[in-house]
Amino acid sequence: MEKINSNISRLSLHDSHLEKITKVGNNLKIEFDWAFLSDYKEMNIKDGIVVGKSILEIIGYNSELFKLEFKGSVGFENKASIELPFADNITQNWDVILDNEINDVEKKVKISGFYNYENIPCWINWTFEYQGAELKWDSYVLHEDWKKGAVPE
């Protein structure tokens, strides 16, 4: 299994899907169907790689916030934003991740995307802080090869 535990900010989750979130105490395991790393310097790969199923393990998970925004939801533009409590099944209504921001210095994460709340399409922002993080995956392809049709196994 391949892994990184520094410079996590090189991780991009655009168009990936949350498959599962498991919370145990102050630790969190987040499973994605795929992800992109802007480099894999640990293996002397300076260009990006596309990884297959991946797990982001968060140590010291805190200050979580799941916030729904309805500004672009036709007919619901004036609906007030809603804060959701953490739930293991939150991934069931999270359609796709469209953006993520990771600050390695401040140890803050923001993951955003399309969400379906009571049959209302909306935007979700998940923010949290952490003490440590490690990304693990089994397979990858070079970004250059991915652009030619290769996919991680």
Topology:
Elements: E1 2-4, E2 11-12, E3 18-24, E4 27-32, E5 35-37, E6 49-51, E7 54-59, E8 62-69, E9 82-84, E10 94-103, E11 108-117, E12 120-129, E13 132-137, E14 140-142, H1 143-146
Antiparallel strand pairs: 1-13, 2-5, 3-4, 4-7, 5-6, 6-14, 7-13, 8-9, 8-12, 10-11, 11-12
Folded structure, characterized:
It is a single chain. With 153 residues, this protein is an all-beta fold. It has one domain (2-146). The chain contains 1 helix and 14 strands. It has one helix at residues 143-146; strands spanning 2-4, 11-12, 18-24, 27-32, 35-37, 49-51, 54-59, 62-69, 82-84, 94-103, 108-117, 120-129, 132-137, 140-142. The strands form 3 sheets. A 5-stranded antiparallel β-sheet has the order 1-13-7-4-3, with no helix packed on it. Strands 9-8-12-11-10 form a 5-stranded antiparallel β-sheet, with no helix packed on it. A hairpin with a 4-residue loop joins strand 10 (94-103) and strand 11.
Brief account:
With 153 residues, this protein is mainly beta. It has one helix and 14 strands.
| Lateral arrangement of strands in the main beta sheet | 1-13-7-4-3
Report helical residue fraction: under 10%
The SS-based structural class is mainly beta
Outline type: globular
Output the radius of gyration.
16 Å
How many helices does DSSP assign? 1
Number of strands: 14
> Low-confidence segments, ≥5 residues, pLDDT <50?
none
Main sheet characteristics: 5 strands, antiparallel
Into how many domains do the coordinates divide?
1
User: What's the helix-strand series?
Assistant: EEEEEEEEEEEEEEH
| Mean pLDDT reading | 96
